[in-house]
Amino acid sequence: MKRTKFKPELSINLSGIKMKNPVMVASGTFAYGEEFAEIIDLGKLGAIVTKTITLKPRLGSSPPRIIETPSGMLNAIGLENKGVEDFIEERLPFLLRFDTPVIVSIGGETIEEYINLSRILNKVKGIAGLEMNISCPNIRYKKEKAKGSFRLFAQDAKATQEVVRRARKVTKLPLIVKLSPDVTDITEIAKVAQNAGADVLSLVNTFLGMAIDIPSRQPKLANITGGLSGPAIKPLALRMVYEVARRVKLPLIGMGGICNFEDALEFFIAGAKAIAIGTANFINPRTTLEIIEGIEGYLKENKIKSIKQLSSIQHR
């Protein structure tokens, strides 16, 4: 008899989003895929999460908007984009050419903006799911801003509950809620999002940080603060995935400083069902494919039949 070659199962079903493998690209680091398509085969990715789009066009923050930091980077892009109509007409058709689920990231300053975006995109064919970016550190919740506070939706349990609950009513698409690490207890916000109707949780978004230019004694970013990402945040993001995995029943997408397959494996073992690659795309555009290959190689070497078997940490 011929011996069959051992091939581990990498495919997953993320609350209705069928993926050939659990590796996706994080919002804001892959644009709309067109530039990367010249370097990698987009059809090999588990899923593509688009740059966050808003209801109307946004100019974003003033430059400088990106600063390199030790083991990471700060960004304050400010969700620059041309709005949902431009996305549907000009950007989405390209992404739909590939056999890869397209998850559209949406953002807004009011609950109504999220609701309108969810309603509009619910009618568009080909979209696999919505990522509710309620945690971008460069876009604030308008109601709170009026009170003199600068909170994000994801920093406020009531705001999180309301925006997710209302979005759930207007769309049948899987809802992925992206959480902020800048909270006292991320598990509490995670439970609120779950109870409000989220299908998947994505964590973590960037940490709010800043950098100062000593000669001028001024902030390096025009926006003063920005989102910190990259290897510097990996231990923090990993801990949060571990904690949330033990408090909610929803599948998790882990992210934060993943640069190689070993990093990815840590997130799976901590409790993530899928992972997203962000800052590493700027360093090496082929990172995602290398991670997919590395994960498959690890499973083969250790005779592990499925990626689903990796979550093994017991609560101590």
Overview of the structural elements:
With about 325 residues, this protein is α/β, with parallel strands linked by helices. It has a single domain, classed as TIM Barrel (Alpha-Beta Barrel). About 30% of the residues lie in helices and about 20% in strands. It has nine helices and 16 strands. It has helices at about 85-95, 110-120, 140-145, 155-170, 185-195, 235-245, 260-270, 280-285, 285-300; strands at about 10-15, 15-20, 25, 45-50, 65-70, 70-75, 100-105, 125-135, 175-180, 200-205, 205-210, 210-215, 220, 225-230, 250-255, 275. The longest helix has 15 residues, at about 285-300. About 50% of the residues are buried.
Which oligomeric form is depicted? single chain
Strand-residue proportion: 15-25%
CATH topology: TIM Barrel
Q: Tell me the CATH architecture.
A: Alpha-Beta Barrel
Q: Summarize the helix and strand pattern as letters.
A: EEEEEEHEHEHHEHEEEEEHEHEHH
Radius of gyration: 19 Å
Biggest β-sheet, characterized?
8 strands, parallel, barrel
CATH homologous superfamily designation: Aldolase class I
- Low-confidence residue ranges: none
The overall pLDDT average reads: 93
Report the CATH C-level class: Alpha Beta
Class from helix and strand fractions:
alpha/beta
The count of DSSP E runs of length 2 or more, i.e. the number of strands, is: 16
Q: End-to-end distance, in Å?
A: 46 Å
